[in-house]
């Protein structure tokens, strides 16, 4: 059967096993690149960078120019959604994201989807320009945070070590927490559909903090909201595949493969590859999962780690990526070394040999 597209990422997500996998890296645009740091220094602040199409297009294209990745991820952040719902969001140098925390259920009344598309219009403009500027063979990925992961920042007022605020709401005020999650399911669906209409070809949903929950809560607060989101996308924009990154979901990755409706699952660094190949890859394409710190270490151990992933996952539908975002101290030459190793790979030759 002729594939619907010749783009490697779309072929892998359609279930094809490829001679060499497509590759892109989470946070591939970012502070490890000197050209990113130069643009970042010009912008007034991080949100300003996300909302200025000229700058956002430029930093999205930088890693494609330097390394020739097979996919490009829109430059933005998961926290533009709380911003667009009316919450105050800012980024502090050396600290990270900060938000005016939602402290009590009555604060939810201050959030509204009414101004969503107006606030996010510059992101849609960035997507339209990227579709024109990207090389023809590169796939454009849009993204959003999953409802739980975004809610965690909204309730904590920033990053967290123990997620106590989110857990207190979920365990002690489940109805109020459900209202926030439902609002985020709706808003995130609106946002992703608008990204698709502007030109993204795949969407990735980041549930970076899925791994903090006991089983029943993980199902209720991560799997169920993501299921609702993918069901809506499947119904309204059926041609666009979804990649889901439920980081830390452990054995429940299997339930995400069976039930979430995603075409691809992003594997975190800790997930055993043999298990993933057996339990997940017959149902979905898998993406991952090189340890970002191995990419900092480099050398022959990096080659061996890359080979191990290619050997274990390269016999089924597979997208090479990291197990979490690339870190700022990553040496540029290690990324080149990894790319050479992947480009030199030939699954058929390996099987024959
Ligand atoms: O000053 C800077 O340059 C800030 C660093 C930075 C960057 C480069 C932040 C702040 N966000 C981003 C861009 C970004 N964030 C992208 C697009 C770029 C790309 O991938 O090439 C994406 C997809 C994200 C997604 C994101 N933001 C996630 C999910 C992925 C993950 O890493 O788990 C999360 C949790 C965020 C929140 C956030 N924004 C920024 C930081 C440092 C963080 C993480 C804070 C924390 O660890 O709690």
Which kinds of small molecule does this entry bind, naming each only once? coproporphyrinogen I
Total individual domains: 1
Classify the beta-strand content into a percent band. 5-15%
Biggest sheet architecture: 7 strands, parallel
Largest sheet strand order: 1-4-5-6-7-8-9
Number of helices: 16
Helix content: 40-55%
- Which word captures the global form? globular
Classified by CATH, the class is Alpha Beta
What is the CA-CA span between the terminal residues?
27 Å
Radius of gyration: 19 Å
Which structural class matches the secondary elements? alpha/beta
Multimerization state:
single chain
For the secondary structure, the number of strands is: 9
The CATH architecture is: Alpha-Beta Barrel
Describe the structure.
The protein has 353 residues and is of the alpha/beta class. The chain has one domain: TIM Barrel (Alpha-Beta Barrel). The protein contains 16 helices and 9 strands. Strands 1-4-5-6-7-8-9 form a 7-stranded parallel β-sheet. A two-stranded antiparallel sheet has the order 2-3. Strand 5, helix 10 and strand 6 form a beta-alpha-beta unit. The longest helix is centred in the middle third of the chain and has 25 residues. The radius of gyration is 19 Å and the shape is globular. It starts with 7 loop residues before the first helix and ends with a helix. The structure holds coproporphyrinogen I. The site of coproporphyrinogen I (1CP) has 22 residues, from strand 3. The site of coproporphyrinogen I has 22 residues, from strand 3.
């Amino acid at each position: 059967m002729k594939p619907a597209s010749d783009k490697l990422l779309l072929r892998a997500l359609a279930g094809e096993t490829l001679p060499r996998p497509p590759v892109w890296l989470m946070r591939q645009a970012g502070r490890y690149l000197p050209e990113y740091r130069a643009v970042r220094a010009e912008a007034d602040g991080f949100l300003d960078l996300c909302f200025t199409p000229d700058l956002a297009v430029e930093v999205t294209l930088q890693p494609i120019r330097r390394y020739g990745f097979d996919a490009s991820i829109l430059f933005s952040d998961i926290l533009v959604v709380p911003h667009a719902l009316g919450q105050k969001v800012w980024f502090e140098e050396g600290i990270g994201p900060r938000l005016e925390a939602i402290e009590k259920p009555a604060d939810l009344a201050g959030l509204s989807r009414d101004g969503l598309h107006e606030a996010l219009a510059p992101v849609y403009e960035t997507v339209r320009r990227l579709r024109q500027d990207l090389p023809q063979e590169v796939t454009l990925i849009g993204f959003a945070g999953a409802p739980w992961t975004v809610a965690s920042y909204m309730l904590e007022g920033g990053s967290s070590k123990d997620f106590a605020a989110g857990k207190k709401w979920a365990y002690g005020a489940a109805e109020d927490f459900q209202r926030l999650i439902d609002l985020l399911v709706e808003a995130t669906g609106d946002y992703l559909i608008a990204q698709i209409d502007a030109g993204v070809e795949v969407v990735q949903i980041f549930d970076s903090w899925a791994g903090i929950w006991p089983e029943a809560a993980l199902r209720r607060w991560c799997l169920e909201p993501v299921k609702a989101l993918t069901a809506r996308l499947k119904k309204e924009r059926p041609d666009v595949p979804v990649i889901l990154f439920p980081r830390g979901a452990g054995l429940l990755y299997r339930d995400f493969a069976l039930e979430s409706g995603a075409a691809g699952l992003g594997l975190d660094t800790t997930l055993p590859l043999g298990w993933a190949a057996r339990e997940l890859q017959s149902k979905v394409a898998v993406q991952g999962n090189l340890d970002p710190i191995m990419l900092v270490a480099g050398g022959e151990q990096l080659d061996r780690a890359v080979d191990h992933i290619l050997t274990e996952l390269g016999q089924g539908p597979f997208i090479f990526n990291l197990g979490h975002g690339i870190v700022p101290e990553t040496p540029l030459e290690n990324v080149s070394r990894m790319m050479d190793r992947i480009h030199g790979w030939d699954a058929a030759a390996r099987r024959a040999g």
